[in-house]
Task: structure prediction
Amino acid sequence: MSRTASLVAVGVLGVTIGAAAILAVQFIKGASEDEAPIIVKNGSTTIETFDGKWADDQGARWRNDTLKTHGNELWVRVDFTDGTSSCKASGHPVMIDYSQPGFQAIFNFANGRTNVSPKGGLTGVSNQLLQHGNHQDGGHITDVRVNGQSIPGCDSTKIATVLDEVRICSSASQLACQ
Result:
C-alpha cells in the first residue's frame, strides 16, 4: 500500500471512530433524559403530556410515546390553589378518582412508557391532551392515590375543593415532581 493510500485509510478510520463516538455520546445523553411530567388538571380530568404524544395502544389504554427513558416508577406531586404545601408520593399505579361514578384514571408504566386507562373513558382531544368530562358538567377530581393508598397530607376534601394540578413524573430527578 502506498504512503498516500495509508494516510487516506488512517483518515477514514479516524473519521469513522469520531462519528461512532459522537453517536455513542448522543445515545447515552438521550437515554439519560427523563420523560417530562404529565399534568392532570381539575374541572374535568384533563391529562397533558409535554414531550410526547398520546397514542392508542390498540388495547384498553393510552400510552405516552416519547423517546425518553422511564425509571419504572411514578412520582406524584399534588398542588393546591390555596397556597398550602404540596403533597408527594411515589409508586404505582397512580389512581385519580373523578366525581362521576365509575370513572377512575389509572396511570402505570409498561415497555418504557407511561400509560393511562381506561382508554374508553378518556377522549383524545389532541396528540398531547386527553380529557374526561368538561368544565360544564360540574365534575371534579375527588381523590389521588398511589399503590391504592391516599397520599399523606392530601385529604379528599382538600383535593375536591382546592386542587390546582397533579404532576406525574417518570423519575425523581424531574423538578416538576420534587
Observations:
- The radius of gyration is 22 Å.
- The chain has a mean pLDDT of 77.
- The first helix runs from residue 3 to 32.
- The chain has two domains: 1-32, 35-177.
